[in-house]
C-alpha cells in the first residue's frame, strides 16, 4: 500500500491526494502534527531517500519526494500517462511540456498569493493586487482552457493543482467568482465528489489558515 506523508493540512499534498483519489489507489496517509517532533526527529532521519521532505510517497522500497515529481511517479506507475500530458501509450506529446510550464506558473501563482497574504497591508490592497498581478495569470490560463473542459484538453494532474489554487483564491476573495464551471466540473468527477463528501471536509479545513494570513 502506498503511504503519503505530509503535515496535517492541505498544503502541497492536496493535489496529490486528489490524484490518488482519482486513481482509486489503495493508500493511507501519515499526517504529522504541527509541532514537527515526529517528522523532524524520527521519520525525516529514517526515510530511505537522500532528499527527505514533505510531502513524500512510500511505495514498498521506493520513496519519492518533491510535490511536482510525485504525480509523475504515480501517473507512470498506474500507466495513466495522459495525467501528465503524455499520449495514452506513454509516448511523447507536446502537452508534456505544456504540463510542466503550467505547473510552474500555477505554483508561482499559489506562492505569490500566499506570500502577498502574509503582509498586513494585503487586507486593504488585495483587490488592487488581484487586478494588477493575479488576474494577468488568470487571463493566460483562461486562454489556455479556451472551450475545453480541462487545461490540456483531457484531465491531467494540473487540473487538480489548479483546482486547489482556485480554492485558495476563493478563501481570500470570497466574492470573486472565476472559473466556477471549471470548479464544478472537478468537484463532480465521481471519485473527487466522493472524496469531498467523505474525507476531505472533515480534516482539511481551509479555515485553519486564518491565523497565518491577513484577508
Ligand atoms: N520542493 C519541495 C518543497 C517541500 C516543502 O517545502 N515542504 C515543507 C512543507 S510545504 C516542509 O515542511 N518540509 C519538511 C522539511 O523541510 O523537513 C516540494 O515541492 O515538495
UniProtKB/TrEMBL annotation:
GO terms for biological process: glutathione metabolic process. GO terms for molecular function: glutathione transferase activity. The keyword Magnesium does not apply. It catalyses: RX + glutathione = an S-substituted glutathione + a halide anion + H(+). It is an enzyme of class 2 (transferase). Pfam families: GST_C_3, GST_N. Keywords: Transferase. Residues 1-82 form the GST N-terminal domain. The keyword Nucleus does not apply. InterPro entries: Glutathione-S-Trfase_C_sf (IPR036282), Glutathione_S-Trfase (IPR040079), Glutathione_S-Trfase_N (IPR004045), GST_C (IPR004046), GST_superfamily (IPR050213), Thioredoxin-like_sf (IPR036249). Its EC number is 2.5.1.18. Conjugation of reduced glutathione to a wide number of exogenous and endogenous hydrophobic electrophiles. Belongs to the GST superfamily. Mu family. This is glutathione transferase.
